[in-house]
UniProtKB/TrEMBL annotation:
CDD domains per the UniProt record, alphabetical: ABC_Mj1267_LivG_branched
Keywords: ATP-binding, Nucleotide-binding, Transport
MF terms in GO: ATP binding; ATP hydrolysis activity
Protein name stated in the entry: Urea ABC transporter, ATP-binding protein UrtD
Record organism: Methylomicrobium album BG8
Top-level taxonomy: Bacteria, Pseudomonadati, Pseudomonadota, Gammaproteobacteria, Methylococcales
Length: 274
């Protein structure tokens, strides 16, 4: 079981199915941190997700691939509360019903998302961006009075090391390369101490060297956090993947190692072959 290290999230008690929730703890005793079962989403009669079931283990790094329109973004939107499914269930650990929570409560409970386009504050330094991400946890009033304590400085220091930007901590984020901005944004997400990180196309537009560094970064996080990566870059997926889930027409087509899915004739037909 992974313990939430931050304060007890402010979750409506009605989101809990039964009395299994212990203060500050997401119940992963069965090894699974995200349960999606029979999830369907329709837009004007078009099924973007079609009875999709997916299970993510605590601490795993899962790669999600699939052709354009397969439903990857919609799946992320359902997990983070942006889109409500028509049918199905979505649980965080065994007991937290995400369908009863809004986007803010889901984020606060420990599910963080990094969008494809970096949105760092260019006028602020790298350090200040991380500081701001830490403050975003606080209410507006307490963030006005907020001063970093030693523990929080250490957390920023560790995060700078993790994302490889320690030497640039005092530089304005606007001067960073595209890859460095992406790492900073991953760092900002880490400041929220999420248990689950959803990462959308992290290496799009990166140089080869930056792609390699991003692979190392994500691999260094597995075990500590559960990470779901959506990416089209197959070489990158191969370098990080243990288990790959292939989506097609809103459902899971197959799951397995990169070799297994790449040699699956159905995958070759719908995705890798085109
Ligand atoms: N808000 C919406 N309204 C109508 N249709 C939508 C909406 N959002 C997604 N869709 C449709 O649902 C399908 C799944 O889209 P989604 O963005 O989830 O796919 P994806 O796998 O993320 O694709 P890509 O790899 O291109 O990002 C697509 O056909 C898309 O056009």
């Amino acid at each position: 079981m992974i313990e939430l290290t931050k304060e007890k999230p402010n979750i409506d008690e009605s989101a809990f199915d039964g009395a299994m929730y212990h203060e500050g703890v997401v119940d992963t005793r069965h090894g699974t941190i995200l349960y999606l079962e029979d999830v369907s989403v329709s837009f004007d009669g078009f099924r973007a997700l079609n009875q999709l079931s997916l299970y993510i283990d605590a601490g795993e790094l899962r790669c999600l691939i699939g052709p354009n329109g397969a439903g990857k973004t919609t799946l992320m939107d359902v997990i983070t509360g942006k889109t409500r499914p028509d049918t199905g269930s979505v649980f965080f650990g065994q007991t937290i019903d995400l369908l009863k929570m809004d986007e803010a409560a889901i984020a606060e409970a420990g599910i963080g998302r990094k969008f494809q386009k970096p949105s760092v504050f260019e006028a602020l330094t790298v350090f200040e961006n991380l500081e701001l991400a830490l403050k975003a946890n606080k209410s507006t009033w307490s963030s006005l009075l907020f001063r970093l304590n030693g523990e929080q400085r250490d957390l920023i220091g560790q995060t700078l090391e993790t994302i490889g930007l320690t030497a640039l901590a005092g530089k304005r984020a606007g001067i960073l390369s595209h890859g460095q901005k992406q790492w900073l944004e991953i760092g900002m997400l880490l400041m929220q101490e999420p248990l689950v990180m959803l990462v959308d196309e992290p290496v799009a537009g990166m140089t080869h060297q930056e792609v390699e560094r991003t692979a190392e970064l994500l691999l260094s996080l597995q075990g500590k956090r559960s990470i779901v990566v959506v990416e089209h870059d197959m070489e990158f997926i191969r370098s990080i993947a243990h288990k790959v889930t292939v989506l097609h027409e809103g459902s899971v087509l197959t799951e397995g190692t990169m070799d297994e899915v790449q040699n699956d004739p159905r995958v070759i037909q719908v995705y890798l072959g085109d």
